[in-house]
Amino acid sequence: MSKRKTDVVSTSIEDINLTNKKIIEIKNNNEQFFMINGKRKTFNILTYGCQMNEHDSEKISGILNSIGYEETEDEKNADLVIFNTCLIRENAELKVFGKLGEIKGLKRSKPDMLVAICGCMMQKPEIREKILKSFSFVDIIFGTNTIHELPDLIYNVDFNNHRSIGIIDNTELIYENMPKTRKYNYKALVNITYGCNNFCSYCVVPYVRGREKSREPQDIINEVTKLAEDGCKEITLLGQNVNSYGNSLENKFTFANLLLELNKIDGIERIRFMTSHPKDLTDDLIRVIKECDKICNHIHLPIQSGSNNILDKMNRKYTKEHYLNIVSKIKSEIPDASITTDIIVGFPGETEEDFKETVDIVKKVEYDSAFTYLYSIREGTKAALMEDQIPDETKHKRFNELLDVLYPITYEKNRLCIGKTYSILVESVSKSSENFLTGRTEHFKLVHFKGSEDLIGQIVNVKITNVKTFHMEGVLEQ
Ligand code: 5AD
Ligand code: SF4
Predict the structure, then answer these.
(1) Residue 329: inside a domain, yes or no?
(2) What is the mean pLDDT of the chain?
(3) What separation in Å is there between the alpha carbon of 84 and the centre of ligand 1?
(4) Residues 372 and 443 grouped into a single domain
(5) What is the structure's pLDDT at 435?
(6) Quick check: 432 pLDDT over 50?
(7) How far is the CA of 375 from the centre of ligand 1 (A)?
(8) What average pLDDT does this structure show over 413-430?
(9) Which residues make up each annotated binding site for [4Fe-4S] cluster?
(10) What is the CATH number for 14?
(11) 234 with 200, same domain?
């Protein structure tokens, strides 16, 4: 094992149990509840935001399951409701406050129900203060670095009858072995780095998730090996900037090295990763994606803006020429690759000319799809202090103009798939029709096709017959 600056702490329930009598008391208490009521105490997690949060919710579920709670789909039946919150844009924050209002009513009719809030919003002191002052019905507050403290926090409320708060602002520690109840058995999210060092001027993540830390390669390899043994076919490696994986490790080990190792694991058939930062995407990585059969030919490469002036103000540390150069390398080395992106419209100081450059880059790259966002002021970031904020009306106008260019390109990219056969990992029954299944190609394109439910979790071949902007339709090939 390499020497490292970041210390690893084991947080498996067995490890916590050794030092923590409170967990044993909670477990006993929950067992008693089960004996008396014939059912277990239940929890419901409302997850907002990105895949990082989705995965944190799987850890929260894992911890709660291991101390005797059971998950319920409906918050109205839950003994414990947990908000796992997001702070990336204002509307994410507003959604949480709206839902908290609803839960306040529920708590009035069910005073024994516990309410907990965690996630990125709780890492911001001002928001914690607001919750403490104005939402007195909230029993537990914890953050992104203190998920493992949840049993302690529940104990405080259950046994000492007082509000519990567990927050660590920034930590050098990595918590390994946390129990996880994964949502799916055929695909899994796997953290490779935590935090972010990039400080893009619009973004709140480095302030709430702390400095970047990489997990030990062997810890990641062990987790993925175990997932494969349990039948998992697809993994998605998570990091704010996966390309800088390994920077905090004392022994040099790059993201490309990690992918090479994970590609060797029997049973894993697809490897995805999110998110790549254009400043750190190396030729070596493109070569590894090309050479490794399991790595999906899909690269999510956020551009944010097509104007060098705005990219500089965003502190993105690359130019549009550098970005286009990477894209042309990807296209020539991996002609089959799909490229997707994130774009922010209406960043402070964005002129009509700057915006046209963003539209221009969308046309040049011909993205398979893109997440488009209106710039949202985030208190505490550099961009929030910039004077030339763009009026909402202009932001919306540009946003719509961008979609008018983007959607026909996305549709055209899908249209080129008609008549071709793709392997699809079947994910679920389609939401729109019971007879249809839904899955994704390695390029991350959504495909609906007729088939029976027992194909869920399998990889099948589907021939594309028809396409729309946001999904494709096809027929199963035997
Ligand atoms: N306003 C709008 N979009 C933002 N993003 C991050 N911060 C903001 C903000 N303040 C977008 C970026 C990032 C994605 C996850 O969210 O495009 O890539
Ligand atoms: Fe935010 Fe930039 Fe870090 Fe992504 S790379 S999390 S956009 S600061």
Answers:
(1) yes
(2) 94
(3) 18
(4) no
(5) 86
(6) yes
(7) 7
(8) 97
(9) 50, 86, 120, 196, 200, 203
(10) 3.40.50.12160
(11) yes
What proportion of the chain, given as a percentage, has pLDDT over 70?
A: 98
With 80 as the cut, is the pLDDT of residue 7 above it?
no
Taking the CA of residue 88 as reference, the ligand 1 atom at the shortest distance is 7
Q: Is there an atom of ligand 2 within 6 Å of 277 CB? A: yes
Whole-prediction pTM: 0.94
Give tens-digit pLDDT for 132-149.
999 999 999 999 999 999
Residue-wise pLDDT tens digits, 316-337: 999 999 999 999 999 999 999 9
Which of 416, 435, 455 is the C-terminal boundary of a domain? 416
Residue nearest (by alpha carbon) to ligand 2 atom 1: 203
**Which ligand sits closest to the CA of 50?**
1
By the 8 A CB rule, do 93 and 121 touch? yes
Query: Atom 13, ligand 1: which residue's CA is nearest?
Result: 342
Write down the pLDDT at residue 4: 44
Atom 6 of ligand 1 has which residue's CA nearest to it? 203
Residue 369 scores a pLDDT above 90: yes
Tell the residue number behind the tokens 């963003």, with chain if given.
358
Which of 318, 373, 389 to mutate to test ligand 1, by most ligand atoms within 8 A of the CB atom? Answer: 373
Distance CA 355, CA 309 (A): 11
Q: Is the pLDDT of residue 15 over 90?
A: no
Q: Alpha-carbon distance 164 to 429, whole Å? A: 40
Annotated binding site: 50, 86, 120, 196, 200, 203
Q: Is the pLDDT of residue 28 over 50?
A: yes
> pLDDT tens for residues 224-249?
999 999 999 999 999 999 999 999 89
pLDDT score at 335: 96
**pLDDT over 90 percentage in the chain:** 87
Do the beta carbons of residue 82 and residue 45 sit within 8 Å?
A: yes
Contact (Cβ atoms closer than 8 angstroms) between residue 327 and residue 289:
no
Other beta carbons within 10 Å of 121:
28
Ligand 1 binding pocket, CB closer than 6 Å: 88-89, 202-203, 302, 304, 342, 344, 373, 375-376, 378
Q: What is the pLDDT of residue 2?
A: 40
Q: Which ligand neighbours the alpha carbon of 378 most closely? A: 1
Nearest ligand by distance to the CA of 208: 2
Question: Which ligand has the nearest atom to the CA of 209?
Answer: 2
Residue 63 identity (one-letter amino acid): I
Domain that holds residue 206: 184-296
Concatenated DSSP letters of 108-137 = HH-TT-EEEEEEGGGGSHHHHHHHHHH-TT
Residue 176 lies in a domain: no
**Are 36 and 146 members of one domain?**
yes
Whose tokens are 């500089």? That residue is 312
Q: How many domains does the chain have?
A: 4
Q: Which of 242, 259, 220, 191 is closest to 1 using CA atoms?
A: 220
Which of 135, 166, 197 is the endpoint of a domain? 166
Q: Which atom of ligand 2 is nearest to the CA of 277?
A: 5
Which of 194, 204, 211, 241 maximizes ligand 2 atoms within 8 Å of its Cβ, making it the mutation to test the pocket? 241
CA distance 300 to 368: 10
Q: How far is CA 239 from CA 8, 170, 222, 393, 423, in A?
A: 17, 17, 18, 34, 26
